[in-house]
Structures are given as structure tokens and as C-alpha cells.
# Entry
Amino acid sequence: IHGGPFANIAHGCNSVIATTTALKLSDYVVTEAGFGADLGAEKFMDIKCRAAGLTPNAVVIVATVRALKMHGGVEVDQLGEENVEALLKGTANLQKHIESIQAFGVPYVIAINKFAKDTPAEVKALFDWCKENHHPVAEADGWANGGAGMETLAQMVVDECEQVSHYAPIYDVQDSIEEKVTKIASTIYGAKDVEFSDEAKSKIEIFKKYGWDKLPVCMAKTQNSLSDDAKLVGRPEGFTIHVRDINISRGAGFVVVYTGNVLTMPGLPKVPAAVHMGIDKNGETFGLF
# Structure
């Protein structure tokens, strides 16, 4: 593990060094690309794999009953209650993430990440929906059953890795910043249009002078919606992505595009838990939880 910034405001996956090192040590390397396919996966495919010259063999799309019920309109405090109807309504969100992965040309498997409060009827409904729509799927029950609960998923991933990957980024880095943002917004988010603020437009002109417009773009966007409005759950349509500002991360090698009212402050408390962690004089760790 080397790095791991949040995918809603950064590239959302570990470093190129970490992955290339791991590839020398193991037959299979798994990268967690944070949040949904609209954030972590898009950046992994369009930024990291391009920069590292990597071709991903397969993608695991993680789905939970709880998340899909939320995207089906259930309030957070009611997610523990069985609601198959809302779950099936929420699969519209999952379908969009599947289509986004398909846009990159990479084989995929859906992993149903099981929670203790998921009911058999809900898990069966999601499993049946995947099968009916011809999506490879397996239950991921590692929390309750450890490695044994992940064996079926692991074998399916190995099988998908044997398929041909037609991986390709969805935009060319030689495209303008506006074109790259529009391709991401339309292809991955399902947006109808992109609106750039005057400040963003003026910065784009400055970036052109330095050649920064030919870098990949890293979208800063809420993780709670495919749109830039956290309240729009499910699979919203006909919406506009609002670009309020842009910045340059020259060391990382990409342009950061800020959408909606996304916050870029680190998600840490005033006193991080690490402050109270350590190793005592007897070599025993303390402060872990």
C-alpha cells in the first residue's frame, strides 16, 4: 500500500510505484479505486493506467443492498429494513456503473458485498437481477465467513482475467480541457451538459499557455450522486455538471476540476486517532481499535 487519496477529490487509488512493485511479487494485484465507478474507476482507468502503461484485466464492481436501497429512495435511518422494491429501483444506479466500466472495454464481475442485516430476499433479488441482465455476479461474504466466503468471487475474477481486455481511456490527453471534462460528464456521469464558470474559463486560458491543458483531468465531485448534486440519487438524467474552478497538480501530473459545491478539506477530526497510537517500552502497540 502506497498512498490512497480520496477519489471524490483526488485520484482515488494507490501509487504507480505500489502497483508496479506488487506486480513483481504476485500473479494477481487488486487495486481499490475509491467510491463508485464514476470516481475511482474513471480516474484509475483514465489517469493511473495511462500514466503507468498498465492494462487492467478485469474490474470488480462492488454493490451492496444498503447502497442500492438508498439509491431507490430509502432514507439512511431506514436502510436496515427489508425493501426489495426500493432495492430493484436502485439497480438503475448499478446499471450506470456497469455501463461506465463497459465504456473502458474491460471485463467485469459484480460482487454483492453482504452486510449482516441484508435479508435473504434482498440478496436473492439483487443476484437474480444480475443474472437476468447477464452480468457476472458472486456473493462476497468475507465479513462473516472469511476467505471461504470470497472463494467463488475470487475464482470468477480469475476467470474474467483470462478474457481479452479491450481497455482504452475514454478521452485523448490531447483533447482540450473542456472536451475531456465533457466526455467524462456525458459518458461516465450521464450528464446532458457541462457549464463552466467565468473563473474556470479564465484559468483554462492560462493553463493553455503552459501546456497544462494536455494533462489528464481529475474531477472533484460528490460521491453521493452521479451528478454534482449530492441529493440526486439513483440514475439522474438531463442534468448539468457545473465546473466552478480548476487547479493544477503539477507533481501528480493532472488538472483538478472542481464541480458543484464539493469540499476538498481532509475528512479528519480535529485530533486524528493516530495521535493516540504508538508502541510502548515493552513493544506492545496501543491506541488501535
Summary: The first helix runs from residue 16 to 25. The radius of gyration is 20 Å.
